[in-house]
Amino acid sequence: MSEAILGGLLLLLTVLAVLSIRAGDLLIAAVSLGAYGFVMSLIWAAIGALDVAFTEAVVGAGASTVIMLAALLRTSRRRSPLRSRVSVLSVPITLGTGLALLYVAQGLPDVGDVAAPASRHVSPRYLARTLEETATPNAVTSVLADYRGYDTLVETTVIFTAGLGVWLLLKRAAENSPP
Amino acid sequence: MIERHPSTIVETFVRVVTPLVQLFALYVLAFGHYSPGGGFQAGVILGATYILIGLALGEEALKARVNERVCLALGAAGVLAYTVTGLFGMLAGGEFLDYAALPLPVDEVRARYFGIFFIETGVAIAVAATVTLIFVRLGRRA
Fold first, then answer.
1. More confident site: B58 or A29
2. How far apart are CA B27 and CA A107, in angstroms?
3. Burial (CB count <10 Å: 0-12, 13-18, 19+), residue B3
4. Is the pLDDT of residue A12 over 50?
5. Mean pLDDT score of chain B, rounded to an integer?
6. In 10 A of CB A103, how many CB atoms?
């Protein structure tokens, strides 16, 4: 049952992805990209990654859609025409890559498999000792902020630096354009 | 062209819902130790309330509440709060980002608990300020 729901969501995700790439009206593209983020957050929730689902819902479906819309406000809803011809090479390359990915996916561990290599390295120790070492029952928070504090520090720096870069670029564009 | 259409229903709804959403952001930040959530999510929710104000009430209402320079300073202050928390652990004889060594009047486990809260607060401030900063700049009429 839950696999049928997951399959349906993944199918919807593909449709929304194609729609946001092919839509002639960029307003439709931005909104379907927001819907893509929302469906993605449902998928994260379905496979048990609630923290990621939360982030995807506020960032993917919320903030990034609005920032896209704000960008449209400054430019145009119409986009430059797509090339309609399909290159002869692209069909075998796409099919080949798709088949190769499907073949490799057979060897991947199941979702939530405790015997998977990624679950056997340091995760058991974090999960077992997060409560006694940090008094934090949500292991995602303790791993993010404490055990892997360096990563989160640099991640925060990256977010701020990226925002600063966007701000400086837009500021310069506004200063260079005649009033 | 996309333009704002004044609507009493939308404006009233946004005025009522904004403080509640901001309260929820603080809850997400403070309750991240126990439930899904934390600094990043709280920061985005807080930033989104200012985006909502800008979209529904217009540019003037947004400008009355936030200032680009203040956003820049707050973004830097959030990253600084994180780094300083790490440095305090180092000055107190531990390693960088070792919250157990923080000079707090509690045991080591609680010190790590509060260390997590301090850095999550820094992350929330940095993310909220950055999201708001980009939107304020992008939403301006050139």
1. A29
2. 41
3. exposed
4. yes
5. 88
6. 9
Residue B1: the pLDDT is 40
Number of neighbours of residue A83 by Cβ within 10 angstroms: 6
Q: Which of A69, A138, A141 sits opposite B2 (nearest CB)?
A: A69
Chain B residues closer than 8 Å to A72 by CB? 2
Q: Give φ, ψ of B2 to 5 degrees.
A: -100, 130
Mutate to test the interface with B, among A152, A156, A158, A172 (most CBs of B within 10 A): A156
The ipTM, to two decimals, is: 0.88
Interface test with B, best of A44, A72, A77, A141 (most B CBs within 10 A): A141
The residue behind tokens 């807080």 is B46
For residue range B65-76, list pLDDT tens digits in order. Answer: 998 999 999 999
The token duo for B53 is 């104000």
Contact B115 A146 (CB under 8 A): yes
For residue A167, what pLDDT band results from cuts at 50, 70 and 90?
A: very high
Q: Is the pLDDT at B62 greater than 70, yes or no?
A: yes
Q: What are the boundaries of each domain within chain A? A: 1-79
